[in-house]
Amino acid sequence: MNQGKVMSRYEMYVPWLRSANGRSWHVAMVMFTLVYSLMIAGSVAAKEVALESPDGQIVLKVGVERGVPHYAVTYGDKPVLMPSRLGMRFKRAAPLDEGLRLGRVERSSLDRRWEQPWGERRHMREHYNEMLVHFTGPANKDGVVNGFAVRFRVFNDGLGFRYEIPPQDGQTHLEIVDELTEFAMDPASTTWWIPARGWNRYEYLYKITPLAEVGRANTPITLKTPDGVYLSLHEAALVDYAGMSLDQKRPGLLKADLAPWSDGVLVKAEAPFHSPWRTVQIAPDAPGLINSDLILNLNEPNALGDVSWVEKGKYVGIWWGMPSRPIHGGSGPKHGATTKNAKYYMDFAAKNGFSGVLIEGWNVGWDGDWFNNGSLFSFTQPYPDFDLREVTDYGRAHGVRLIGHHETSGDVSNYEAQMEDAFALYEKRGMRIVKTGYVADGGGIQRVDENGIRRYEWHDGQFMVNHHLRVVKAAARHLISVNAHEPVKDTGLRRTYPNWISREGARGQEYNAWGVPPNSPEHTAILPFTRMLAGPMDFTPGIFDLDFGQGLEAATRVQTTLAKQLALYVVIYSPIQMAADLPKNYEKRPGAFQFIKDVPTDWEDSIALAGEIGDYVAIARKARNGNDWYVGALTDEQARTVVLPTNFLDAQTRYVAQIYRDGPQADWKTNPYAMIVEEVPLTRGQPLRLWLAPGGGAAIRIHAMGLK
Prior knowledge:
The chain is an alpha+beta fold. Helix content is 18%, strand content 34%. Helix 5 packs parallel to helix 6 and helix 7 runs parallel beside helix 8. The protein is globular, with a radius of gyration of 26 Å.
């Protein structure tokens, strides 16, 4: 075949492919993949290489056609990614997307075990086949040959690839103006996604649409193909690079869209450098996505050494008093962050076995319009009615630590100027966790450049990616962990920096207090298959006053049953979990509160048992350093009965299941508090049959009673 007759990528077939839909689109993909492979094989100039997952189910093919590099992926006999483009363009160097040829290929494999200091599961397996593919261009007028490499790793649960870029045209300082990475997929795939680059960062309700209707989307973005294959597109190890969104260029064709600097450049780098991993998680069913460890396995090992000082556990705090409005953050008669209130919450924490108390608003800067006055914040100076020494000494005497709070209002330069002193103060006062905050509209992060000019950056641009790592590293020097709110998205860096203990990065519980609309019942049935694939989330569950005394018909209220609030402690993973409601509301319902007191936050193992995205989910977790298991199950607005397997239990052990479930008449709209607490004996193989009310759930402690 004459190489000149092979058209760029699959452009000659686009009208035919795009006119198909549903199953016919799948047939078109299969036929096209076969035809495309024959064209490549018959072309003298073109070459192609392949790489399989260890179990042989995932097959990656990489090649060059008419000078353009591409890759494609099949799962079993099903194509999941059509030939998709690779490449980069620079501000002052030749582009890396044309005139290229396939160079040498280096292959390797790895199969090793590693242990998480904390996490969803303790023991991890990192098992992949790797291929480093070099692409080489023609010599330029000065005789310089440009090129790059792409490192592919294929696991049994998906794949990752990253660009490895040497100097170009003799330049080491490179400015990326476009990353050409594509993901070409069936446009009829059902897709769960949130918009990217919006004013509210990642805090949106998920849309459920065909892929063809997706606009610019944040990652992780989750899809189900017409063939029934589940996929999630994301990135891993986001370091010194801009965060990636995905923009649909034509139906089914998603392209990398990087958050720019204020001057329009996407990434500023010193060659040689490499990009983050672009990731594709693949599973035959929805629970398979949750059970994937791909994102963590594509991050570097622990860089901090001994991290025994990283503390997990449960905490309480004054925060929920702000949306329910008995207190507020600024100073004055309703100031919540007082020494008196801090001691009250510390007494409650100590009594109920909680390790931390979060007090927001104790430091100067909260008065007035703090959303827009970030430069006024001090991170070491308290208001007169809060004595930091007295509070932390009181906590130490009661076995409770104060959790710090650094709200920046997006003024990062002001924060970085004080950050080291603030962490040193926290270390001196025995504080081990700080919650950071960056409340500002998307694109509203403020910094002062080297010329003293105020610039505005995106929350997920390269500047903020680097800022968050500076914070995490500075905190580690003072034995402090970071729980970031309004953060850059999680990409698994907790493996490398285990003190990055949790973060927000989605619509959390607060939207049930002041969101318009509040979180829908299906929201927490979507999160485990989307946002939670990236890593832990500080969702702040455990609200017992579900309507704030306004009545069940209130427009803004918690759209769950009481039992579902308990289920969230198992379903929405975080090594630090807040009992977010007011102490008085827990004291009114001691039976339900017992589950929150019992449930751990650090796990030996975790298994997604069942679920469909946006409908329901059930997850089992085994306590670290113990034999008890915990199960959380929840549903959307539809009532349903789920039957869960128990083959994760030990066959030789006797168990008692302590079940907190929706009562027969429970309904999030009309009867959210109806709940039954019961104990039943349980053995391995005996199925758990649970009825979940509309907007409801169930929480179970499976207590090991000893050997049979």
